[in-house]
Description:
The structure holds 2 protein chains of 2 kinds.
Chain A: H1 23-37, E1 54-59, H2 64-76, E2 80-85, H3 97-106, E3 111-116, H4 121-131, E4 138-144, H5 150-164, E5 171-175, H6 182-193, E6 198-202, E7 217-220, H7 223-226, E8 232-235, H8 251-258, H9 262-265, E9 273-275, H10 288-291, H11 298-317
Parallel strand pairs in A: 1-2, 1-3, 3-4, 5-6, 5-8, 6-7, 8-9
Helix pairs in contact in A: 1-5, 1-11, 2-11, 3-4, 5-6, 5-11
Chain B: E1 7-16, E2 21-30, E3 33-37, E4 48-51, E5 56-59, E6 61-63, H1 79-88, E7 91-96, H2 107-120, E8 124-127, E9 129-130, H3 143-149, E10 154-155, H4 164-177, E11 180-183, E12 196-197, H5 200-205, E13 209-210, H6 212-229, E14 232-235, H7 241-253, E15 257-262, H8 289-301, E16 306-308, H9 316-319, H10 336-345, H11 353-359, H12 363-369, E17 384-394, E18 413-423, E19 426-430
Parallel strand pairs in B: 1-4, 1-5, 6-7, 7-8, 9-10, 10-11, 11-14, 12-13, 14-15, 15-16
Antiparallel strand pairs in B: 1-2, 2-3, 5-17, 17-18, 18-19
Amino acid sequence: MHNPQLNKNGELQHLLTIEGLPKSIINHILDTASSFVSISDREVKKVPLMRGKSVFNLFFENSTRTRTTFEIASKRLSADVINLNIAASSTAKGESLLDTIDNLAAMHADMFVVRHSQSGAPYLIAKHLNDTKQNHVHVVNAGDGRHAHPTQGLLDMYTIRHYKKDFTNLRVAIVGDILHSRVARSDIHALTTLGVPEVRAIGPHTLLPGGLEQMGVRVFTNIDEGLKDVDVIIMLRLQNERMSGALLPSAGEYFKSYGLTPERLALAKPDAIVMHPGPINRGVEIDSRVADGSQAVILPQVTFGIATRMAVMSILAGTHG
Amino acid sequence: MNSGMKLHIKNGRVIDPANGIDAVQDLFIADGKIAAVGSAPEGFAAERTIDAGGLVVAPGLVDLSARLREPGYEYKATLESEMQAAVQGGVTTLVCPPDTDPVLDEPGLVEMLKHRARILNQANVHPLGALTVGLKGKALTEMAELTEAGCIGFAQAEEPIEDTTVLMRALQYAKTFGYTVWLRPQDPHIGRGGIAHAGPLASRMGLSGVPVMSETIALHTIFELMRATGARVHLCRISSAAALDLIRSAKQEGLPVTCDAGVHHLHMTDADIGFFDSNARLTPPLRSQRDREAIRAALLDGTIDAVCSDHTPVDDDEKLLPFAEASPGATGLELLLSLMLKWAEEQHGQADALPQAIRKITADPARTAGLSAGTLSVGASADVVLFDPRVRWLVAPSALASQGKHTPFLGYELSGQVKATIVAGHLAWER
Lengths: 321, 431
């Protein structure tokens, strides 16, 4: 089966998922990001790599934070950015998803950054562009349903590499709502591709999807056991609507059972880092003393996120369909 | 109509599983009925002779689940387009579920559908009536009236009854008159809103799952109610190995139960979803390889009585959507025969694989549905298909008469081309 995110030469045509992405491409993105990190510290925070290119941020699901990071990344690459919030689902009355895409492509878009509530929506767009011979337009998945959030996965890898240098001797724990998390899925694929020997998932059975073992993950339901001797802890956000109901009885009980407290953090290696894709829920999944503590790298993640997205976009812009 | 035409079909390989025939023989048709197999009846003067050399001559196919989309969904398909698809696929008898708009819960609607189908004079259409009014699972329909109007059984289509008391009453009532209730086992809550087989693949793709237990929990309930009421139940489109194990035991126990499987599930698994291909979005979902192997085995051991096309035309606008938003279903009438031939080809070394494949889409579904069809017995209605099992064809939208152009088999090359379809003695279609 043809992998729709690579072109005939095996180069990155779209970034849709980390699953199946060759290690060499991941490393190339991380290396490129590394060269962009310093740009943000300069007086003039811009490089002309995408001058004259138009990037459309297509957000079918609201996310000010992610949209802003893509906007900043585009601007630092000197691209023109157009933000479109199409919060309604594509089945709502009016223009269909693919009609929207054709219209914007006719305005000479060079890149679509797509956020959608349905898993796989960016694939539909990428396939349509390929089928209609609009291969010069690139798609970046900025989060689709529960499926993938590849730029988040890549910026997480950048952060881990920054602090830990080598992936091949790490224990990484992902804690929380794995079931609904596209971040967890992208992180798992990235970590296993980069050779992390032990990836752990920690959460109650109601928030753990089946089949994690087949993805190369060790599953823990007891957080104290799961955090033992890990090098990296990735906390996941618990969505408000999942805090009480059939998945969990209450936010309070969740924090008691799975919240990251200083006591629990002490079970990990002394130099373990704590990550979170944000926005954080203090007192739900993470104690403020941890979120603000010396081991937290949550804000550096945000900084690295800009560089990582610049890397992805500049690499795609240099690929020809 | 020209149903009185005397037809002589010569030199074909006649396969009639109901009568254990598999031999090169001649077939004679008169007055819309099979007049003779082998040598001509005395004084038979053919008005037309068809040379079926190299072709298989078999009973017209009997499809236990084909959605024609009328009334209500004419933008997806019309009776004209789908009846044409049926005869081009060699299907001469089909059963259609009641989930039209409005649903088939009133005799007038059933009569209208039967009437429209009769005028087209192609395949024989046998509707299933709604088991409950509006398929809402609350009030029973007028089953006796609906039977008089032409319904051959009662179904809930894709709407499981939430209130088990209503399901029990429906079975009791159906039992009273000897009607068969057609149910696709699915729990009304577990797996609701699911779009893919709950398994490692769905987890990976972030698609909400339909667990196998949605099917098995419903089966446990149905079997308990059958034991209590004695009603006869036909189970539609079984998708899992675990469900087949339960059905196998139920049959051994002697419960009056039969079942079918959709032809897609005989060949495909959830892996065929590939990169979110909405053509592979089906109900029930494509399941694991283990489930597929179990379905293939159950076809051989007789646990599965029949294979249906699960023909569900969907228009482009409803498929060109993100996987979860796309309408489920695939076109099937024109693929059923070829996909059964594919199954037969894959039974390597099994000498009677072809007759067995044909049996599962002719005699066995007819028996299951209580229809006098699916056989070439002398005196039976002359519903016949002539096909060349060796001709290969490419599954492409342009090759399909159905208004539904979506199938996970697009781009496949399949064997088996229908050359002629005869319904009640008249040539309904000829290539």
